[in-house]
Write a structure and sequence with these properties.
Length: 94
Amino acid sequence: MVKKRKSGGRAGGSKGSTGSISCSNCGTLVPKDKAKKKTGRITLVEPSLAKELRAAGTYIASQKAIKYYCVSCAVHYGLVKVRAKDERRRRTKY
């Protein structure tokens, strides 16, 4: 059978099996090294109030939000692009 990707779609060479996590969108159980990670910041203050507080010189703390997505949800949200057949096995060079 043809192998689609050299890594099998997973991260980390020979570290063994990893735990499963649930997708933030659909709830599917996905191996942690296969899931796509999205980090962001969430503020607990309304934007209009935050603008006034910043003008007064107040520090506004924000929480770090980490979301994990399965591959199908990551493609749907545009986090990952579908690559052409000849580009799938190649790693991108920076």
